UniProtKB/TrEMBL annotation:
Residues 14-459 form the Major facilitator superfamily (MFS) profile domain. Residues 474-500 are annotated as: Disordered. The keyword RNA-binding does not apply. Pfam families: MFS_1. Keywords: Antibiotic resistance, Cell membrane, Membrane, Transmembrane, Transmembrane helix, Transport. The chain crosses the membrane at residues 12-36, 48-68, 80-99, 105-126, 138-162, 168-188, 200-219, 225-246, 267-290, 296-317, 329-347, 359-383, 395-416, 436-455. This is MFS transporter. InterPro entries: EmrB-like (IPR004638), MFS (IPR011701), MFS_dom (IPR020846), MFS_trans_sf (IPR036259). It comes from the Bacteria. The lineage of its organism: Bacteria, Bacillati, Actinomycetota, Actinomycetes, Kitasatosporales. It is found in: Cell membrane. It is a multi-pass membrane protein.
Length: 500
C-alpha cells in the first residue's frame, strides 16, 4: 500500500513534480492559439500551416494517450513519466528553433508523443504514491494547481509573444523540464501495475493516429480540390475501418468495443464529440479574431480569454456537487445551450470591439456553460462503466474530446470559405468567423439534444470523479482506474460490460 503522506517533504516533492509535468502539457494546449498570428507572420505560413500547428500535436496526443497509460502501468509510471517530460522538452526545443512551418508542424507531432507519455502518468503517480487518507486532498491540489496553469496559459502566451517572441511559448517548457526531471528521479517512488501483462495494442494506436492524421489532412486541404486530397480522404476512411476491424479482433484492444455496450457511455461520448468540436473551433478562431479583426495585441487577446478558465476554477466543484443532486441530464442539456448562446454573442466581436461590452459578456456566458457541463460529463463517463474500467473510460472520453477538437479546427475553415491567407485579411476573416460561430452553436445544440434524449441518471454507488477542480478548456479531466492505474489501452474480453 502506498504510504507517502501529503504533509511530508517527499509528499511535497511528489506534488511539485506532477504539477510541473502536467502544467507543461496544459500550458502548451492554451498558449499556442494566442501565438498563431505571430507564427504565421514570422514563418510566412498559410492558414493550413497554422491549423496543423494546432492539430499535429492533437493527432499524436489523442491517438497515443491510452497507449501511454499502459506503458506506464507496465514499465513503471515514474520511468515513463520522466521519459515523457524529456521527450516533450526536446520536441519543444525543436518547435522553438523551427526555421519553417513544416519543421514546426513535425516538431509539434513529436511534442504530442511526449504529451501522451506524461499526461496519464502525472495523476497516476499521485494515486500510486500517496497514503489513501491523503490521496483525495493530493488529487485536489494537483487538479487545482493544474487549473491555475491552464488559466495563466493564454496570458503568459500573450506576454511571451509580445515580448521575447513566439518561440518562447515553446522554449518555456525546457526550464520546467530541467526542474521536473531531477526532482522526479530523486523523490518520486517508482510504481507499476502487477496486473499489467505487457501486451500493447501498438497496431491499434498506430492505426488510430494514422486515420486521424489522414482525415485531418483531407479536411484541411479539401479546398484545393486535388486528386491527392481525395485519395488521402479515402485512405483515412479505409484506415479507420481497419482500426475498427483490428480492435474487434484483438484479445486486448486499445479501444475495446465492449465498453460501448453501455448506452449511457456511448451517449455521453457523443455529447463529448459535439461540445469539444465546438470548443476547439471556438478557441482556435476566437484567438485569431481578437488579434486579426478586433486589433488586440497578443497579450490583450490572451488576457481577454481568462474569464472562461477562471470561472471553471472557481465553480467546477460546486457544479459537480449540484449535478450529483439533479442528475446529469439537466446540466448536460443546459450547459451546451449556454455555450451556444455565448458563441452567438461573439458575433459582436468585430473591428474595434469593446472588451466590456462585446467580448466579456460572451466569455462569461461561455464560462458559465462550461462550468455547468464539464464536471457532470466526467462524472457520467465514470458512472457508465464498471469501476475496473474507470481509467479506460476516462482515457477514451479524453481522446474523443481531443479528436473532435482537431477535426473541428481542420473542417471549420473549409466550411466557412476561409482561404489560405484569410488571417492576413481582417475583412475576409471577419466574414468567415461570422459564418463559423453559428456552425459551432448548431453543433452544441445537437449535443444538448443528444443529452436530453439519451442521458439518464446513473444508479447509486457509482464511481465519482476525484478531480473536482479543473480549468482545462481543451478536454475533460483525466481520471485513473483502481489502484492508481492510468487511463490505459486494453481491457480484454474478460470484463463484463455494463449495459444500462
Amino acid at each position: 500500500m502506498p504510504d507517502v503522506r501529503l504533509a511530508s517533504p517527499q509528499g511535497t516533492w511528489i506534488l511539485l513534480t506532477t504539477v510541473l509535468g502536467s502544467s507543461m502539457a496544459l500550458l502548451d494546449s492554451t498558449v499556442v492559439n494566442v501565438a498563431l498570428p505571430a507564427i504565421g507572420r514570422d514563418l510566412d505560413a498559410s492558414l493550413a500551416a497554422l491549423q496543423w500547428t494546432v492539430n499535429a500535436y492533437m493527432v499524436t496526443l489523442a491517438g497515443l494517450i491510452l497507449l501511454g497509460g499502459s506503458l506506464g502501468d507496465h514499465y513503471g509510471r515514474r520511468k515513463v513519466f520522466v521519459l515523457g517530460v524529456v521527450w516533450f522538452a526536446a520536441a519543444s526545443l525543436a518547435c522553438g528553433l523551427a526555421p519553417t512551418s513544416g519543421v514546426l508542424v513535425a516538431a509539434r507531432a513529436l511534442q504530442g508523443v511526449g504529451g501522451a507519455l506524461l499526461t496519464p502518468g502525472s495523476l497516476a503517480l499521485i494515486q500510486a504514491s500517496f497514503h489513501p487518507d491523503d490521496r483525495s486532498r493530493a488529487v485536489g491540489l494537483w487538479s487545482g494547481f493544474g487549473g491555475v496553469g491552464a488559466a495563466v496559459g493564454p496570458f503568459l502566451g500573450g506576454w511571451l509573444v509580445a515580448g521575447p517572441g513566439w518561440r518562447w511559448v515553446f522554449l518555456l517548457n525546457i526550464p520546467l523540464a530541467l526542474l521536473c526531471v531531477p526532482v522526479a528521479l530523486r523523490h518520486v517512488p517508482e510504481s507499476s501495475d502487477a496486473r499489467s501483462h505487457g501486451r500493447f495494442d501498438v497496431l491499434g494506436a498506430a492505426l488510430g493516429a494514422l486515420a486521424l492524421a489522414l482525415l485531418t489532412y483531407a479536411l484541411t486541404e479539401a479546398n484545393t480540390g486535388s486528386l491527392a486530397v481525395a485519395l488521402t480522404g479515402a485512405a483515412g476512411v479505409a484506415v479507420a475501418v481497419a482500426f475498427v476491424y483490428t480492435e474487434r479482433r484483438r484479445a486486448d484492444p486499445m479501444l475495446p468495443p465492449g465498453i460501448f455496450a453501455s448506452r449511457r457511455f456511448t451517449a455521453v461520448n457523443l455529447v463529448t464529440l459535439c461540445v469539444y468540436a465546438a470548443f476547439g473551433g471556438f478557441f482556435f478562431l476566437t484567438a485569431l479574431q481578437l488579434q486579426v479583426v478586433a486589433g488586440y495585441s497578443p497579450l490583450g487577446a490572451g488576457t481577454a480569454l481568462l474569464p472562461t478558465t477562471v470561472l471553471m476554477l472557481l465553480f467546477s466543484a460546486r457544479s459537480g456537487a449540484l449535478a450529483d443532486r439533479t442528475g446529469p441530464r439537466l446540466p448536460l442539456t443546459v450547459g451546451p445551450l449556454l455555450c451556444a448562446a455565448a458563441m452567438l454573442l461573439t458575433l459582436r466581436v468585430g473591428p474595434g470591439a469593446s472588451y466590456p461590452l462585446d467580448v466579456l459578456p460572451a466569455l462569461l456566458v461561455m464560462g458559465a456553460g462550461m462550468v455547468t457541463l464539464v464536471a457532470p460529463l466526467t462524472a457520467t463517463v465514470l458512472a457508465s462503466v464498471d469501476a475496473s474500467r474507470a481509467g479506460l473510460a476516462s482515457g477514451i472520453n479524453n481522446a474523443a474530446a481531443r479528436a473532435a477538437s482537431l477535426v473541428a479546427v481542420a473542417a471549420l475553415p473549409l466550411l466557412t470559405g476561409m482561404g489560405p491567407d484569410a488571417y492576413r485579411d481582417p475583412a475576409a476573416f471577419d466574414r468567415s468567423f461570422d459564418r463559423a460561430m453559428p456552425v459551432c452553436a448548431g453543433v452544441l445544440v445537437l449535443g444538448a439534444a443528444l443529452a436530453f434524449t439519451l442521458v439518464r441518471r446513473p444508479g447509486p454507488g457509482c464511481r465519482r470523479p476525484e478531480c473536482h477542480i479543473h480549468g482545462s478548456v481543451t478536454c475533460p479531466p483525466l481520471e485513473t482506474g483502481e489502484s492508481g492505474s492510468a487511463p490505459r489501452a486494453g481491457g480484454g474480453r474478460s470484463h463484463r460490460p455494463v449495459t444500462d
